[in-house]
Design a protein that fits this description.
Length: about 190
C-alpha cells in the first residue's frame, strides 16, 4: 500500500512541476499525458521513475497533448455553457435537451480521459485513439458507470479534502482510467494479435 501511495505522490509531483513548466495554461494537458505515459511504462515500480525521463516525455508530447487538451476543454466549455443556458428555461420539453447535454458532457470527459490513456498505452495517432475511445465508451455500460462513479468519488473526496488536489487527485484520475481500461486493452490486444 505504501508503494502505491508513494508512486501517486511522485506522479503528482511530476504533474504539478510540469504544469508550472508549461506556464499552467500550456502545461496541464502535456503534464497529464506525461503522467499517463510514465505510469504506463513503469506501473508501481517506484525505483524506475526518473525526472529526466518525465521531462523528455513532456517535451515530446507538448504540442499534440496541448491541442488535444484544449480541444476537449473548449468542447466541454461550450457544452457546459449550453447546459447552463438550458437550465434557465422552465419549459418541460427542455428536459430532453438537458439530458442530451449532460450525456454529451460525460462523453467529452470520458473521451478525453480515454484518449490520454490509449495514446500512452499504444503508439497511435489521435484519430485512432479517439476511435478506440468511442468504442471503449460504448463497449460496456456497467464499466462506463463504474468509471463515471469512480470519477465522481474522486471529485467528491477532492471537494471534501481540498489538499488532495495537490497530492492525489490527478494521479488518481489517471490511474482510475488505466484500471477501467485494463479489460479494453486486453480486448484490443487480442484483436491486434489476430
Amino acid at each position: 500500500m505504501f508503494t502505491k501511495v508513494y508512486v501517486m505522490l511522485i506522479l503528482s509531483f511530476y504533474f504539478w512541476i510540469l504544469t508550472v513548466a508549461g506556464l499552467v495554461i500550456a502545461g496541464v494537458g502535456p503534464a497529464m499525458r506525461t503522467v499517463a505515459e510514465i505510469y504506463d511504462h513503469h506501473g508501481w515500480q517506484y525505483r524506475e521513475y526518473h525526472w529526466h525521463e518525465s521531462w523528455q516525455t513532456f517535451k515530446q508530447v507538448f504540442k499534440a497533448a496541448n491541442m488535444q487538451w484544449w480541444g476537449f476543454a473548449i468542447v466541454g466549455a461550450i457544452l457546459s455553457e449550453s447546459l447552463y443556458l438550458a437550465l434557465q428555461f422552465k419549459v418541460g420539453w427542455m428536459l430532453f435537451i438537458i439530458f442530451i447535454l449532460i450525456f454529451a458532457l460525460l462523453l467529452c470527459l470520458a473521451l478525453g480521459m480515454f484518449t490520454i490513456v490509449l495514446q500512452s498505452h499504444y503508439d497511435v495517432t489521435f484519430k485512432v485513439a479517439l476511435r478506440l475511445a468511442v468504442s471503449q465508451f460504448f463497449s460496456s455500460f456497467p464499466r462506463l458507470l463504474l468509471f463515471l462513479g469512480g470519477l465522481l468519488m474522486i471529485v467528491v473526496f477532492t471537494i471534501k479534502w481540498p489538499g488532495l488536489i495537490l497530492f492525489m487527485t490527478i494521479p488518481a484520475l489517471v490511474l482510475w482510467t488505466f484500471y477501467i481500461s485494463a479489460k479494453w486493452f486486453t480486448f484490443v490486444d487480442a484483436h491486434l494479435a489476430e
